[in-house]
């Protein structure tokens, strides 16, 4: 199957992966024939893995595909570029679906929460809105993960505060990243984010009253949001802002006023 993939150009290969789940698989008598193609594509990593997720979801959900390392490889896709690729909304939509089950182990959910939280430190506002909503929804499905936002120090230690984050950002295996020993300190920094939309969402979702009473947050509106829309809102200033320099009408007016020149 790798030889078959190698014969495709990059552009055609991506088009095939994008259209496979909607235009090809519904017309196959046995979609399981695509298992090798989709798993090989998923194993390639990067954008190919993201595009192969839709087809794999159909095979897992409807055709009982058993993929033992699926979540490990899914966790491996969480790298800084994920918030900047074209298919970012598609990825987080499927990630939310794959992590819906309440039977997933606690260490796995904690690993995804912590890794997304860590990546949000360098993500654009649109990515942060999606990431924060994803984390909060995961915690509402798995209440035991709330320890990540209530912990002030690592377990089994007597130090009053965490001297360093035990989370291993380079670990590819969620079992080895030590997420359950860490905390989501990144969320606290986002409360003062420069984008008001981000800061408001984080403060609202982390409010103890809202956290317990509100249902899961809708992810869809943030998936459809664009960076252009966010910055357009930022530019809609309704009042004059204070500035540190005088307002100059003409090129030499400030100099003449300061030095009383004519």
Q: What keyword list fits this structure?
A:
262 residues, 55% helix, globular, mainly alpha
Describe, in plain words, how this protein is organized in 3D.
It is built from 15 helices and no strands. It has 262 residues and is an all-alpha fold. It is globular and about 65 Å long. Helix 3 runs antiparallel to helix 4, helix 4 (46-63) packs parallel to helix 6 and helix 6 runs parallel beside helix 8. Residues 153-160 have low confidence and may be disordered. The protein starts with a helix and ends with a helix.
Write the SSE topology:
Blueprint: H1 2-6, H2 10-24, H3 35-43, H4 46-63, H5 70-76, H6 88-98, H7 106-119, H8 125-141, H9 147-150, H10 185-190, H11 196-205, H12 208-213, H13 220-224, H14 227-235, H15 253-259
Helix pairs in contact: 2-4, 3-4, 4-6, 6-8, 7-8, 8-11
TL;DR of this structure?
This protein is mostly helical.
Number of helical regions: 15
Largest sheet: none
Average predicted confidence as pLDDT:
81
Uncertain ranges: 153-160
Q: Work out the helicity level.
A: 40-55%
What does the radius of gyration come to? Answer: 24 Å
Beta-strand proportion: under 5%
Shape: globular
Written as H for each helix and E for each strand, in order along the chain, the element string is: HHHHHHHHHHHHHHH
**Spatial separation of the terminal alpha carbons:** 82 Å
How many strands? 0
Structural class: mainly alpha
């Amino acid at each position: 199957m790798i030889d078959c993939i190698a014969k495709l150009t990059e552009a055609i290969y991506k088009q095939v992966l994008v259209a496979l789940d909607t235009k090809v698989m519904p017309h196959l008598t046995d979609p399981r024939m695509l298992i090798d193609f989709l798993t090989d594509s998923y194993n390639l990593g990067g954008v190919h893995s993201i595009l192969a997720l839709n087809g794999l979801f159909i095979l897992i959900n409807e055709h009982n595909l058993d993929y033992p390392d699926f979540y490990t490889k899914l966790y491996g896709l969480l790298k800084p570029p994920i918030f900047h690729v074209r298919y970012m909304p598609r990825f987080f939509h499927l990630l939310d679906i794959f992590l819906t089950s309440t039977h997933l182990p606690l260490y796995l959910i904690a690993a995804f929460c912590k890794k997304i939280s860590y990546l949000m430190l360098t993500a654009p506002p649109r990515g942060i809105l999606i990431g924060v909503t994803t984390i909060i929804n995961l915690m509402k499905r798995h209440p035991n993960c709330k320890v990540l936002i209530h912990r002030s120090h690592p377990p089994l230690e007597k130090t009053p505060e965490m001297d360093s984050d035990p989370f291993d950002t380079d670990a590819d295996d969620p079992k080895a990243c030590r997420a359950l020993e860490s905390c989501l300190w990144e969320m606290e920094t986002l409360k003062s984010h420069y984008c008001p939309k981000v800061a408001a969402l984080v403060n609202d979702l982390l409010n103890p009253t809202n956290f317990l009473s509100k249902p899961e947050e809708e992810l869809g509106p943030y998936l459809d949001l664009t960076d252009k829309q966010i910055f357009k809102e930022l530019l809609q200033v309704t009042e004059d802002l204070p500035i540190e320099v005088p307002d100059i009408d003409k090129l030499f007016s400030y100099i003449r006023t300061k030095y009383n020149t004519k």
